[in-house]
Amino acid sequence: MSTLNKVADVVPELLIGAAVDVVVRGSDSFIGDVLGVESRYAQLGWLAAINVVVWIIESASEYAAGVLWRGLAQGIEHDLRVEAYDHAQHLDLGWHETRPQGTTLATLNDDVNQLERLLDVGFPAILQTVLNVVLVGAVFAVASWQLTLYAFLPIPLIVIGSLVFQRRLEPLYDDVRERVADLSGALSANLSGIATIKSFTAEDRERDRIAGFSIAYRQANLTAIRSSAAFVPLVRMAILAGFTCTLLLGGWQTLDGDLELGLYSVLVFMTQRLLWPLTDVAEVLDLYQRGRASTVRILALLAVPVAVPAGTARLDKPVGGRVELRGVRAGYADGPDVLHGIDMVIPAGETHAIVGSTGAGKSSLLRLVLRFDDPRSGEVLLDGTDVRELDWDSLRGSVGYVAQDIYLFSGSIADNIAYGRPDASQADIEAAAEAAAIADFVASLPEGYGTWVGERGVTLSGGQRQRIALARALLRDPALLVLDEATSAVDNETEAAIQSSLRRAGERCTTLVVAHRLSTVRHPHRIWVLDAGRVIEAGTHDELVAQRGSYAALWAVQTGEATA
Ligand SMILES: Nc1ncnc2c1ncn2[C@@H]1O[C@H](COP(=O)(O)OP(=O)(O)OP(=O)(O)O)[C@@H](O)[C@H]1O
């Protein structure tokens, strides 16, 4: 459509030449010969009719090309956005944790959107400019080789200029994209921490900090724009040279009788046609550089390898839920080990607790069981198979997990509880809520299970959120229930209710609990005491109290039998 449009766009100029030719040469005119029409009035009539048809074709093809290019741009953007998002969500948790969320968001959103103008304005402009040069060049070549030379004089200059400018613009637009990512990162971090900002009345300070990022972005953009805008006058000077040559030398040739008047007028118009669109080259170059800087970022995201790839082995159903850690050593990024050779067996169907001081490595250990990270050495087994060999459905599909930091989705309470089993019936949802001791609270809400919960569940208290997350985990009827401080925010009475439901739930599944409050874990089959990444004691509550070791001391402090 763009090609048809360009051809139709060039034809009226030829028609002008033909019209001048009719007036000057009468019945000998080019159009008179082609159509076999003698009358000049009739010849002009024919030209007018052809012109109308050409304009209709031009307008229709322009519309179609516009719609198609935009459709293509939107399609590419959509594919890229979804592919990049999908890749990002398969990247390991460690990658996400070491990178500001806003930076990833900037790539998935801003960088992808940045491609729109390159795709729907830049690409058609490139195609049309090349076509223009070819078509107009053909007319020139037929008319006079000297004039072709003059008219095309600016083109190599413009090409060389583009290459030079391109090299200059590249780092400038890379800088712009980096500044956008910084700004986006700061904005998203601040909005997540809005309560903290308010509580420390840091609004003014934060506004200034965001303004700093915004100024850096504006500055980077201005620097790039200043360089890119300088290219347009340069192109114009080159065009002026070509145009002047055609006007002057073509005019002299016509005066000398070496060039037909009709052809001369066509060539003067054509020089305009040929050269003025070349000023677009500057804009296209700008769009290209912006698009390139964004594409580099998107491709860099797509090129990040998945550090924790899924295995292919499947577990036989029903999954028992036996967990075993053998000589597990683990740590984060290049940091020191946070777990030093952990050996642990949690037989299927048992409830085990992990306790220990803060920073002892309890959460890190749970992350290995869910395979958010892989150990540096040793192995983690589920039902006797190394978790690295299992596919996600066998591993994470068998686990119900309640994290320390609860995330609820924007949606109804029922949607949130059924997140892991979207096809669950209302009765299943209510049973899970009952087991998590949240059913009475939900029933007391005017809209019950249909109550809308805001993003991150901000409309609920900490304890309510925890219980909904617990219901969500229980609804999956998991073979292995993993609870990381899952009841830390509920009162003692509610906790006792949850404990008894969990005991009932625990009859069906293996349970691994991390808790600070030791009363939470009084009834497990075994308690593992972790200190600085090592298991220092293990046994039942009674055995550990009798041992009079760290657990006994901690228990004494928490039950008020001793002071710290
Ligand atoms: N994502 C992470 N990146 C780098 N280091 C981490 C990360 N998470 C935890 N650590 C480090 O690993 C060590 C163990 O942390 P972990 O969260 O496993 O302890 P924990 O026993 O669960 O503590 P708490 O009871 O306070 O939750 C700590 O020294 C911590 O600084």
From TrEMBL:
Subcellular location: Cell inner membrane
Pfam family, one: ABC_tran
Domain ABC transporter: 323-557
UniProt keyword terms in alphabetical order: ATP-binding, Cell inner membrane, Cell membrane, Membrane, Nucleotide-binding, Transmembrane, Transmembrane helix, Transport
Membrane topology of the entry: Multi-pass membrane protein
Ranges that cross the membrane: 121-141, 147-165, 234-255
Domain ABC transmembrane type-1, chain residue ranges per copy: 1-290
Coiled-coil region list: none
Entry GO terms, CC: plasma membrane
Chief localization: membrane
Single GO molecular function: ATP hydrolysis activity
PROSITE patterns attached to this UniProt entry: ABC_TM1F (PS50929), ABC_TRANSPORTER_1 (PS00211), ABC_TRANSPORTER_2 (PS50893)
Similarity comment text for this entry: Belongs to the ABC transporter superfamily. Siderophore-Fe(3+) uptake transporter (SIUT) (TC 3.A.1.21) family.
Protein name (Swiss-Prot/TrEMBL): ABC transporter ATP-binding protein
Organism placement in taxonomy: Bacteria, Bacillati, Actinomycetota, Actinomycetes, Propionibacteriales
